[in-house]
Prior knowledge:
Helices cover about 45% and strands about 20% of the residues. It is α+β, with helices and mostly antiparallel strands and about 100 residues long.
Amino acid sequence: MYKLIYLYILKCKDGTYYTGVTNNLEKRIKEHNLGINKDAYTYSRRPVELMWHESFTNFNLAFEWETKIKKWSKKKKEALINNDYDALIKLSKKNFNKKE
């Protein structure tokens, strides 16, 4: 049996997004909202709301995607959250062309 790991995006009180991974999604969201770690990004931005998540059986792949998504723009994260794959592709191409 495979253990699942969840990649998730939270919307913070200030309108920013936080991306993370966990093996217990419900517990982790509660921890964010309780403010257990005063040094955490979400501590001063509570409450947070789960906007999107995906489950993985491959830990390395989940962490790889977390790293990628953390670098995305707010618009690109919102396209993912809204399942707007056309916008996601356009934003990816736009960012790719900026680097050239």
